[in-house]
Amino acid sequence: MKHLAGVAIAAALGLASAASVAADKEIAVIVKTANSDFWQNVKKGANDGVAGMKGYTTTFQGAASDTDLAGQVALVENAVNRKVAGIVLAPSDPDALIPAMKKAWEAKIPVILIDSAASDAGKNYYQSFLATDNKKAGELCAQALIAKIGTTGKVAIMSYTAGSGSEIGRVGGFKDYIAKHSKLQIVGPFYSNSQMGTALNQTTDVLAANADLKGIFGANEPTAIGMGRALVQAGKAGKVVAIGFDGNADLQGFIKDGTLEAIAVQSAYQMGSLGVKTAIEVAQGKKVPKFRDTGVVMVTKTNIDTAEAKNVLY
User: Does residue 48 contact residue 273 with C-beta atoms inside 8 Å?
Assistant: First the structure.
């Protein structure tokens, strides 16, 4: 009898343990693509953000590329089918993800957007949007460029995915500021689809076709890296004033050696950490702000070693 009682107790403990594991609720973090340091920093933030939230865990997935809209839609739909507790989503397109977001809303699964917005048609299907104020960030990049090259001449825009929410705000803010505060002629934008090699080739062509180019703007991490490498290869590093975006080790190196004048750095870590925490808050019935600005820091050779810069560089 004692043996049977022991077996029963062990079985009960096993069931309790299994129930404890099963009780962990999943927050699905779905980004544009996992293939960049920026998104890996979002993942790090998400993992750290959930660490202190008892009963929750995170998963992290990205589409094959920024332009793989069908792949990202499938990831969201799969998360809905798994009945996750919440979804943290960086939509690659402001409209393409709305039907999948609606499915989550119908299933009463909170959706928190990070980095890029959805169009107004999707405003009812997400509970909060965490991002850099991309329009303001684009304006800061234009301001930094004008401060170095003045208000006349030619500048090129090397962009990434046409139509994505962050690109519309970022490049739009840059162009609007240039138009309002200078007589600079804009060449482009050219779209790399967030492929570093494409950005390198495009920048090489732009430099060859515009010998009088005074400035250039690379609007996201892989694009800015490709732009920087093209400047070095063409012997134009430090001669054409270059402003980049995001803050991985390659871009930090370009700041230190003078290839880039400045980089606008978002807090990818904060998007992941605060995104997960916000999803959990909504899942627990708490009210959250519709928009949270995660900020941007303009990093230059002068301030790259400060605490403010180190908090966002990765």
Answer: yes
Fold category of 24-132+268-294 in CATH: Rossmann fold (3.40.50)
Q: Report the alpha-carbon distance of residue 170 to residue 50 in Å, rounded.
A: 29
Cα Rg, the chain, nearest whole Å? 22
Amino acid, single-letter form, for residue 114: I
Q: What is the CATH number of domain 134-266?
A: 3.40.50.2300
Per the CB < 8 A criterion, the answer to whether 314 and 37 are in contact is yes
Could you read off the pLDDT of 226-272 as tens digits, one per residue?
999 999 999 999 999 999 999 999 999 999 999 999 999 999 999 99
Would you say the pTM of this structure is higher than 0.85?
Answer: yes
The residues of the chain that CATH labels 3.40.50.2300 are 24-132+268-294, 134-266
Tokens of 233: 């290869």
| Three-state secondary structure readout of the chain | CHHHHHHHHHHHHHHHHHHHHHHCEEEEEEECCCCCHHHHHHHHHHHHHHHCCCCEEEEEEECCCCCCHHHHHHHHHHHHHCCCCEEEECCCCCCCCHHHHHHHHHCCCCEEEECCCCCHHHHHHCCEEEECCHHHHHHHHHHHHHHHHCCCCEEEEEECCCCCHHHHHHHHHHHHHHHHHCCCEEEEEEECCCCHHHHHHHHHHHHHHCCCEEEEEECCHHHHHHHHHHHHHCCCECCEEEEEECCCHHHHHHHHHCCCCEEEEECHHHHHHHHHHHHHHHHCCCCCCCEEECCEEEECCCCCCCHHHHCCCC
Task: Name which of 209, 223, 35 is nearest 141 in CA terms.
Answer: 223
